[in-house]
């Protein structure tokens, strides 16, 4: 039996107690809710920040591109997503197309800039060392390193590569030579002058080096990339692509990380108008200055390289691939 003031509680007090208990329970569950919310926020916040920063970086680097600037599609646009290295074929029929992958690539520019630095030892640390055209190693080891894994050569430089083959090719067992040129020079029916030279060389050097060339589809793709990046059709705008263009594309396809040595940024010549660095490190000093040549070509109406524009484009690609610029640094 409940007495009014004994074992039982007054209805008002009972209500108060129920209110207190319910309030406490509510308070506890609210606190747990807030705590968990904070916890999950802490868990995903860094990932979100990183993603936002990435998008921001891409936006930034896309800002001045005349192509569709708001998309986050990769630069350069891939040639073939499932088979990135397709389109580099062996000049000897029935041999396998190019297959190569490197964790770290050192891409060594042919610019006289390399002589201003002694990056040779650092370059040699890279798993793969990429050189261009007939740029030598012998006599320049302190600046450009000693090893060559891949040499990318243009149709115009092929004769020089061939002339210096004892030094550039024969010494480098296991070397990969990749050549590019306009379709008529690469015809495989006996009428392609550069193709003929390449296949003769490949047969002569046997298994010591592998010689590849770009297919016509690859060549057309390189032009398409130029148009997409600059908004100007390559050919009708009077420009030639440089070997650096083809080499940078190849590097983005086969290297996890690309360390570029001796390449100047698009701002360099404006920043250092008195700069007298020579165009090629292996040319004699009287053969012209890199910045003079770059400026002349940038404004040339016909048959001109857009070296400076290409550098602007490379800095955009650096946001999509692991590319860093050394000696001189671009920062
Ligand atoms: C875009 O161009 C403007 C003016 O031409 C320049 O000031 C700015 O730095 C450029 N931005 C990027 C991200 O290249
Ligand atoms: C990409 O390469 C794969 C394998 O070589 C091929 O089957 C496919 O057709 C290629 N795709 C394009 C768009 O060229
Ligand atoms: C670039 O690659 C190096 C070596 O794998 C790595 O340490 C670095 O974090 C990478 N940087 C970016 C921005 O991915």
Automatic annotation (TrEMBL):
UniProt keyword annotations, A-Z: Disulfide bond, Glycoprotein, Glycosyltransferase, Golgi apparatus, Lipid metabolism, Membrane, Sialic acid, Signal-anchor, Transferase, Transmembrane, Transmembrane helix
Disulfide bonds: 105-255
Subcellular location field: Golgi apparatus membrane
Membrane-topology annotation of the record: Single-pass type II membrane protein
GO biological process, one term: lipid metabolic process
KW Transmembrane helix (keyword) present: yes
Transmembrane annotation, as ranges: 15-35
Top-level lineage group: Eukaryota
Region (Disordered), start-end ranges: 61-80
Keyword field contains Glycosyltransferase: yes
Catalytic activity, as annotated: a ganglioside GM1b (d18:1(4E)) + CMP-N-acetyl-beta-neuraminate = a ganglioside GD1alpha (d18:1(4E)) + CMP + H(+)
Gene3D superfamilies: Glycosyl transferase family 29
One term under GO cellular component: Golgi membrane
GO MF assignments: sialyltransferase activity
Main location: Golgi
Family membership: Belongs to the glycosyltransferase 29 family.
Entry-linked PANTHER family: ALPHA-N-ACETYL-NEURAMINYL-2,3-BETA-GALACTOSYL-1, 3-N-ACETYL-GALACTOSAMINIDE ALPHA-2,6-SIALYLTRANSFERASE-LIKE (PTHR45906)
Protein name stated in the entry: Alpha-N-acetylgalactosaminide alpha-2,6-sialyltransferase 5-like isoform X2
């Amino acid at each position: 039996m409940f007495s009014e003031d004994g074992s039982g509680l007054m209805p008002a007090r009972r209500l108060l107690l129920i209110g207190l208990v319910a309030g406490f329970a509510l308070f506890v569950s609210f606190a747990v809710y807030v705590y968990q919310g904070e916890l999950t926020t802490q868990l995903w916040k860094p990932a979100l920040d990183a993603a936002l920063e990435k998008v921001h970086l891409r936006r930034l680097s896309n800002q001045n591109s005349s192509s569709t600037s708001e998309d986050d599609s990769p630069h350069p646009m891939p040639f073939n997503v499932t088979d990135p290295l397709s389109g580099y074929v062996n000049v000897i029929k029935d041999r396998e197309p190019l297959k190569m992958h490197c964790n770290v690539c050192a891409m060594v520019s042919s610019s006289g800039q390399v002589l201003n630095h002694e990056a040779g030892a650092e370059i040699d640390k890279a798993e793969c060392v990429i050189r261009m055209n007939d740029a030598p190693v012998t006599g320049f080891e302190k600046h450009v390193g000693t090893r060559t894994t891949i040499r990318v050569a243009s149709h115009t430089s092929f004769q020089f590569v061939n002339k210096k083959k004892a030094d550039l090719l024969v010494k480098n067992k296991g070397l990969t030579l990749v050549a590019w040129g306009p379709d008529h020079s690469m015809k495989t029916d006996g009428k392609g002058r550069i193709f003929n030279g390449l296949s003769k060389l490949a047969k002569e050097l046997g298994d010591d080096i592998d010689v590849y060339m770009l297919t016509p589809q690859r060549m057309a793709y390189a032009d398409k990339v130029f148009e997409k990046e600059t908004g100007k059709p390559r050919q009708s705008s009077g420009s030639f692509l440089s070997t650096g263009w083809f080499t940078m594309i190849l590097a983005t396809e086969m290297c996890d990380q690309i360390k570029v040595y001796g390449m100047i940024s698009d701002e360099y010549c404006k920043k250092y108008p008195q700069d007298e660095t020579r165009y090629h490190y292996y040319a004699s000093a009287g053969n012209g200055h890199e910045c003079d040549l770059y400026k002349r070509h940038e404004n040339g109406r016909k048959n001109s390289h857009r070296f400076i524009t290409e550098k602007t484009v490379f800095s955009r690609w650096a946001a999509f691939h692991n590319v860093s610029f050394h000696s001189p640094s671009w920062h």
